[in-house]
TrEMBL record:
Domain Nucleotidyl transferase: 4-237
UniProt cross-references to SUPFAM superfamilies, sorted A to Z: Nucleotide-diphospho-sugar transferases (SSF53448), Trimeric LpxA-like enzymes (SSF51161)
Organism of derivation: Streptomyces celluloflavus
InterPro entries: GMPPB_C, Mannose-1P_guanyltransferase, NTP_transferase_dom, Nucleotide-diphossugar_trans, Trimer_LpxA-like_sf
Domain of life: Bacteria
UniProt name for this protein: Sugar phosphate nucleotidyltransferase
């Protein structure tokens, strides 16, 4: 069976305040930690051993997932005391692998939701006899990503990490954050210093004449690095736009977890999740949003495309549109939060005190 390394050590800075108390892969999407969806996909692809390369809030992972036996997997936890980049994290996981030098090892970023056929990617890697095979996808605006042009056979020609000028945009193919490494390539990554596979390892392999293969796949793909993308991913999982065996229920317009209370006159839709112990009052509307465990939405409030943190409170008639409310925050009645506003954990906003967006 193919082994896998999941890179779950990042601080999730772009997702704050969601990640103040919770590492990014453990933030709930469609009712379970996002990491659960990735592990389920690996299991379905035939993977039986996963090494979790952790760093930030590393102590959170093992108490939840244990040894992985409940998932039909064997999980090993490796923790970096000091973050050493993507390459350093992959190299730190090497000692926990059991694959032979020429065997394939999957490596996945911990913040990507995709419908990629992982088993097929491994097959393509082995057929090409590549040192590394990369999942590539196409996007309309590639400026925020690493560009990976290929020839007509799929062989990688170059790497341009986050282009800074129009002349550097030579393709719309981007690095989609899922790789198959030959095990011996992982073992050759330097130890004891920061290493970026995107900026150092992959370009170095190309310079040495190694065969790097790109596989372009146009199935569902989403980078969950921003709050709006994370909320969209959760909604897409709930609605069945992308399938996951980890979903705690059937696909539908909303997901209400056990222990939640939704008043008869409340309206839910758009892939909304109402977490365990959360409450939605009479006349409230929650559309395409995530209410984490214990959150409460008062009567007449309107929540759209937003994330409301664990134990947070939204007052009567308050509008939260495209915003994030951190864990334990209290937003009073008759407020209006729009367009990227982030309310920090445990913040208190009095009634009718805020009517602005992040654009103001």
């Amino acid at each position: 069976m193919t082994e896998a390394v999941l890179l779950v050590g990042g601080k999730g800075t772009r997702l704050r305040p969601l990640t103040v108390n919770t590492p990014k892969p453990m933030v709930p999407a469609a009712g379970v930690p996002f990491l659960a969806h990735q592990l389920a996909r690996l299991k379905s692809a035939g993977v039986d051993h996963v090494v979790l390369a952790t760093s930030y809030l590393a102590e959170v992972f093992e108490p939840y997932f244990g040894d992985g036996s409940a998932l039909g997997l064997r999980l090993t936890y490796v923790t970096e005391a000091e973050p050493l980049g993507t390459g350093g994290a992959i190299r730190s996981a090497a000692d926990a692998l059991t694959s032979a030098p020429a065997e394939p090892v999957l490596v996945l970023n911990g913040d990507i939701l995709t419908g990629l056929d992982i088993a097929h990617l491994v097959e393509r890697h082995e057929a090409a006899r590549a040192a590394v095979t990369l999942h590539l996808t196409r996007v309309e605006d590639p400026r925020a990503f690493g560009l990976v042009p290929t020839d007509e056979t799929g062989r990688v020609l170059a790497f341009t990490e986050k282009p800074t000028s129009p002349a550097e945009i030579v393709t719309d193919q981007i690095n989609a954050g899922c790789y198959v490494f030959r095990r011996e390539v992982i073992d050759a990554i330097p130890t004891g210093r920061p290493v970026s596979v995107e900026r150092e390892t992959f370009p170095g392999l190309l310079a040495d004449g190694a065969h790097l293969q790109g596989v372009v796949d146009r199935t569902y793909w989403l980078d969950l690095g921003r709050p709006d993308a994370f909320v969209q991913a959760s909604a897409d999982l709930v609605r069945g736009v992308v399938a996951s065996a980890a979903m705690p229920g059937e696909p539908g317009p909303y997901l209400v977890l056990p222990g939640a209370k939704v008043a008869a006159g409340a309206k839910l839709g758009g892939g909304t999740v109402v977490g365990a112990g959360a409450e939605v009052a009479e006349g409230a509307v929650v559309e395409g949003s995530v209410l984490l465990d214990g959150a409460r939405v008062a009567d007449g409030a309107w929540i759209g495309d937003s994330l409301v943190g664990a134990g947070a409170r939204i007052g009567a008639r308050t509008v939260v549109d495209g915003a994030v409310v951190g864990d334990g925050a209290r937003v009073g009645a008759d407020n209006e939060l729009r367009k990227g506003v982030r309310v920090w954990c445990d913040t208190r906003l009095p009634d009718a005190s805020v009517r602005f967006s992040a654009d103001c």
